[in-house]
Amino acid sequence: MGKRTLVRRRGRGGKQFRAIITGKIAPTKYPNFEINELHNGTVMDLIHERGRDAPVAKIKFDDNNYSYLPATEGTAVGNKIEMGRGAKPNPKNILDLGSIPDGTVVCNIERNYGDGGKMIKAAGSSAIVFSHSFDSVKVKFPSGKILDMNPRCRAMIGIIAGGGKGEKPFLKAGNKAKYMQSRGRLYPVVRGIAQAAVYHPHGGGRHQHIGHPSSVGRNTPPGAKVGNISPRKTGRARIKKRQ
Fold it and tell me: What span, in angstroms and rounded, lies between the C-alpha atoms of 242 and 227?
């Protein structure tokens, strides 16, 4: 019988492994306005939401309702925002991709029209409107991938604020633990060779080494299914010299 490794002991995930809801404000999504309507909004406040690096802008639109959106660089309290067909392609404004000129930097892009914005919402991230065609808009993402998007999908012009957050060191393990807890991530992650033999198949020994091949089969029992699972090739590549 195999060992119950750390990942299996977590099970479905208890309270310490789930993203907590304390400190959450509201979903950050666009209001459900018609694409042909032009609406104006005012930034009322900039808020920090737990588990999110980018600041959140609290915006009051002309229908007296509030919406929460990821703030772009340069956003300040009192800024005016335009949303909808006919809005100017200026920073912080929200337009459909079909109305945004080529080469414009955008963020908070809808994957499907009306979903409120699903992509490019991390701090410091942005995409570029690459080109337009008859029925699609090509958008270049930070990974370098170019996707054909629906021209009705909306996006905010600018770069998500808080881009330097990841450059600040944690300095203490406790700060890193709280950061990971707010995102529901497992921390700390201990190497298998650093554990005792009773806790992991790679553990034990006079020094930290596996002691046997790290490749396991696809049908290996769960307790021993650690390491390289059914790899296609491992080790150094062998190059045959031509005769």
Answer: 34
